[in-house]
Structures are given as C-alpha cells and as structure tokens.
Design a protein that fits this description.
binds pyridoxal-5'-phosphate; 8 strands; PyrdxlP_homeostasis; Pyridoxal phosphate homeostasis protein; TIM Barrel; PLP-binding_barrel
Length: about 230
C-alpha cells in the first residue's frame, strides 16, 4: 500500500481508538519513522499530511533533513552519543531519548536555543533497552534544572515485543503514572505534558493509555524487509 493509504487507515484507527476512550484525536501527534526508507518515501508521508518525521541515527537524520528541510518537524528518536550532539543538535526539534546526565550536559553546552526533550524511561527493565530506571526519574529530572537548554516536554518508552497485550498495557500505564507525578511537581524546566509511546505493533494500546506521540515506521512508510512497501 502507498503511504497515503496507510496514513488514512492509521488516521481512522486513531479516531476510533480515541473515541473509545473519550480522547480528542487532535491531541495525538503521529511521527513517521523513516529510518528504514528512502527520502522519497519520507516525502510521501509529508504529502499525506504527516509532517513529523523521526530518525534514530545521525547519518539518516542529517541526510533526510538536508533534502527535506523545514517542511517537516524533526524528531530524533534513537540513542544519541554525546560526541555526535554537536553535529545534530541544531537540526533537532524534539529529542525523544534523553537518558543520561552527560548527554544533558553536552546538549546544554552545544545548543543555541532550548531543546524540547522527552526523558526516555526503561519501564520494562530489559537490559537491552536504553532509558532511566523508573525509580531514578524524579531525581534525574530535578537535576536537569541545572541545564537551562533542556526543556522536559514529556516521557518516552519502548515496550518490548510480547504477545501479552496486558503486559504492554502495564508498561504504558506505568509511564503515564510517572508522567502525572512529574507534571504535578510543577518544575518550570519540566512541564512534562506528553507521552511518547506506541509503535506499529502496539500503538492502539498506547493511545488507550494516553499516548500523545506515537512513532510509526513499518505500518506507515514500511521497513527494510518490505522494501519500503508497508505490510
Ligand atoms: C524504529 C523505531 C520505531 C518504529 O518502529 P515500527 O515498529 O516500525 O513502527 C519507533 N520508535 C523507535 C525508538 C524506533 O527506533
């Protein structure tokens, strides 16, 4: 299917899911994750009205950014090495993977303006996942007040691929509860309004649990095994 058809299908799913839990679909931002696909394919997403694009590696991010420019809002969704910050930070509108103090420090040093950041949390506790441990999130965010270029707009997590929907739901619920706690703390540098959670295989569950930013690759623009064609 082409990106436009996928986008329409996804839009319907978002509307139906939001209706079922009495949410406003306008509160949901769809990020087209273009890491598997060509710049042309990413342009198709923009033509279909999806103007938020996400990349997880420096090279792909800069390449697409160079070719597409300010027609899109640019999300960096992958783990970011501190030494690469200087190359990308001016091009990032939203960072989804703030997960350590050294990264905050480097961003603060290199960025010219305030950067919207999601703090990545490792709710599932899997060794392979990046992110702050849930128990350390409060202290981490409090500490970030020392880095005035960091604006914590929300929390982000990745749920493991599991069959059990209730497990996935439990992970999203925990992130939401943590978001509510941080938001209630009322830190000026951490309004923490948003929840970046949900990918192609679990985004309806994420929406039911309050996701405001869903990150869709495979179901929207396709992936490498489908050669850019979506399943
Ligand atoms: C690749 C990726 C996605 C999109 O994955 P799909 O399953 O293809 O939708 C979302 N978030 C992050 C952080 C990713 O790396």
């Amino acid at each position: 299917m082409n990106v436009k058809e996928n986008a329409e299908k996804i839009k319907n799913t978002i509307e139906n899911t939001c209706a079922s839990v009495e949410r406003d679909p306008e509160d949901v931002t769809v990020i087209a994750v273009t890491k598997y696909v060509s710049t042309e394919r990413a342009e198709e997403a923009i033509d279909a009205g999806i103007v938020n694009l996400g990349e997880n590696r420096k090279e792909g991010f800069l390449e697409k950014q160079r070719e597409i420019g300010n027609k899109a809002t640019w999300h960096f969704i992958g783990s970011l090495q501190s030494r690469k910050v200087k190359d990308v930070i001016e091009h990032i509108d939203v960072l989804h993977s703030l997960d350590r103090k050294s990264l905050a420090k480097e961003i603060n040093k290199r960025a010219e303006t305030s950067i919207s950041c999601f703090v990545q949390v490792n709710i599932s506790g899997e060794e392979s996942k990046h992110g702050i441990n849930p128990g350390d999130v409060h202290a981490f965010i409090k500490m970030l007040k020392d880095y005035p270029k960091i604006n914590v707009v929300g929390l982000m997590t990745m749920a493991p691929h599991v069959e059990d929907e209730e497990k996935t739901r439990g992970i999203f619920r925990k992130l939401r509860a943590l978001r509510d706690e941080i938001k209630n703390e009322g830190w000026p540098h951490a309004p923490c309004e948003f929840l970046s959670m949900g990918m192609s295989n679990d985004y309806t569950i994420a929406l039911e649990e309050g996701a405001t930013h869903i990150r869709l690759g495979t179901s929207l623009v396709g992936n490498e095994t489908t050669g850019g064609e979506s399943s």
